[in-house]
Amino acid sequence: MGESLRLVGFAALEFLTMFRVAAMTLLSLLGLQGLDGAFQHIRWNAENQRQWASCTGDRRISATYEKLPAVSSGGLVPLRTQLSDPARARDLDWHIVNPLFTALGALIPWSLVFSGLYAGLFQDTYYRGDRPFYLLVMTGLLLVAPASARLVQRMHRRWVRFMLAGEVSEDLEERVRTLTESRMTALDMQEAEIQRIERDLHDGAQARLVSIGMTVTQASRLMKHDPDATLDLLNDAKNDSVLALQELRTLVRGIRPPVLADRGLPDALRALAASSSIDTRVASTLEERLVGSVESALFFAASELMTNATKHSSASRIAVELSLENDEVVLEVMDDGLGGAESQDAPGGGIAGIRHRLEPFDGTLDIVSPVGGGTFATIRVPRPAG
Q: Which of 52, 187, 265, 372 is deepest in the core (most CB within 10 A)?
């Protein structure tokens, strides 16, 4: 019921604001200023309504205002300039019709309240024999009034969304723009990863395999004439094959570590911590498997943060926590190092690379790293269907 009174207060303020707009329009015809201030008041009222609807509902309501050109005062030019912005025009329409709609909506629950009180407190003065009946009527009306007030509030939220929310096309364009940027980021990362794999194969395992082939060919030619030299060449080929196998395993771990594919993200983080040169503890309450691409993104993000703590912060301890909160996978990496990790958040830096890796999954990275105070990094990724 209190929210109904608040809406009535909004409507009363909007009604007074319309009087101000009308007065400022008349003064503008006389060459005086003041219409801009009246429209600022209109915008303030509309923002209050949007904030109320956003806080009491499940959807954020907003609007985008255009920057208006400077115009000279006088005539209807200032009014036409204000109304050239669709958001300001919607706000003005709202102030014209909303006070009436709000008054009608608030009348429903409060009429039930006053009717119930009248039935229970005054009707028995004239009809004493029907007092139990009127008390029953009063109780019923008073119980129905809060439910009707909530219904009116829900209808008012939809009314706010219909009248004061930004155009749907603007929201769709913003969403399409965001998705396009994320898609381009994912494609760029995929292309960079393919180039890295090609480079590592060309400079590493491929070169060694070519060398092994040449060594075996040379050994086959010397086999009949110089057995000792042949044996040395075969030993070299064997050593090269071992190194090639190690490089291929390293390359596979860089794409998707086997422990991550076989045992999941928590165990992969524990294996990563076990190979760290400083004390690293991992705690996890995540019990389910995630989509492979999300697990890889979180794993390499944690690896990058742990590497930074080891190489650059002089940390002695690292703590990694993995959990699920409100349908979000939360990964926290903390260290007791020198801090100052925000300096790496420049384009091309390690922190920026983590952000780019998380963007395709709508993931976020927040870092608190005061100089001398250690680093606290929090990664949040919406939980995908596993």
A: 265
Strands 279-284 and 328-335: unpaired
Q: Report the DSSP beta bridge partners of residue 334.
A: 319, 376
Strands (E), the chain: 279-284, 317-325, 328-335, 364-368, 375-382
- Tens digits of pLDDT across the chain (386 residues): 556 666 777 778 887 888 888 888 887 777 777 778 888 888 888 888 888 878 877 677 777 788 887 777 667 777 888 888 888 888 888 888 888 877 777 766 666 666 666 655 555 544 455 555 555 656 665 566 666 767 777 777 888 878 887 654 455 556 666 666 666 665 666 666 666 666 766 667 777 787 888 888 888 888 878 888 888 888 888 888 887 777 776 666 556 677 787 888 899 899 888 888 889 999 999 888 888 888 888 888 888 888 888 888 888 899 999 998 888 899 999 998 888 776 666 666 678 878 888 887 888 888 888 887 888 999 999 886 54
Q: Look at residue 381 and give its three-state secondary structure.
A: strand
Written as one string, the DSSP assignment of 153-192 is: HHHHHHHHHHHHSPPHHHHHHHHHHHHHHHHHHHHHHHHH
One-letter amino acid of 45? N
Asked if residue 299 lies in contact with residue 316, where contact means CB atoms within 8 angstroms, the answer is: no
Whole-prediction pTM: 0.44
CB atoms within 10 A of CB 121: 12
